[in-house]
Structures are given as C-alpha cells and as structure tokens.
Amino acid sequence: MTEKRVVKKQIPYDKRIFHVDIDSEKGDKIRIRFPVRAARKILKASGKLPLPQDALQEIDLKELMEDVAACLDEEVEGDFVTVETAGGTHVRVYVDEQ
To answer: pTM, whole model, 2 decimals?
Structure first.
C-alpha cells in the first residue's frame, strides 16, 4: 500500500496578502487587503498606506508605518502588529497566504 503525501506549494512572499483589520470604538469594521508587493510599493512611494485616519485617531500612524515597513522588509509572516487602544479600537496587521 502506498501512502500519498500532499505537498503544499510555498507562495513567494511578494504574492502573499497583507492585511489590516480595524475594529473601531464606534463599531466600524474595516478590512484592507493588498498583495505584499503592492503594500511595499505604496510604502516606498508615500511612506504610508491608505488607512482610514478617523478610525485610527488614537494610534501613532508614523510609528505604525515604520513598524509595518520593517516587518515587510524582513518578510515577517503572521501577525506583526496588534494594537488595542484604551478607547476600544483594535488594529491587527498581518501577512498570510490569502
């Protein structure tokens, strides 16, 4: 009897998906998705990503963008920034295959 193995094909980092999930204190749920390659290009060109400023008033966006850029440069997978503000806003930034 032969055993079948499923080999999962590794997706190149630039083709993985960069996610930003925001649950604001007002109840807004914002989900942003970019291919990692696009997120890198946007960050290089502008120094920031198109994020809703009003939902992130309690967060230092400059520091957040610096952290995101560093993680993308290091090709970090999974969660790499998670913020929970005192006001109740939750931000999760991560990279995965989908």
So the answer is: 0.83
Record the tokens describing residue 94, joined without a space. 């991560």
81/18 Cα distance (integer angstroms): 12
pLDDT at position 60 over 70: yes
Tokens (6 digits) for 62: 């400059």
Higher pLDDT, 53 or 69: 69
| Largest Cα span, the chain | 61
CA distance 36 to 65: 14
CA distance 39 to 15: 11
* Number of helices (H), then strands (E), in the chain: 2, 4
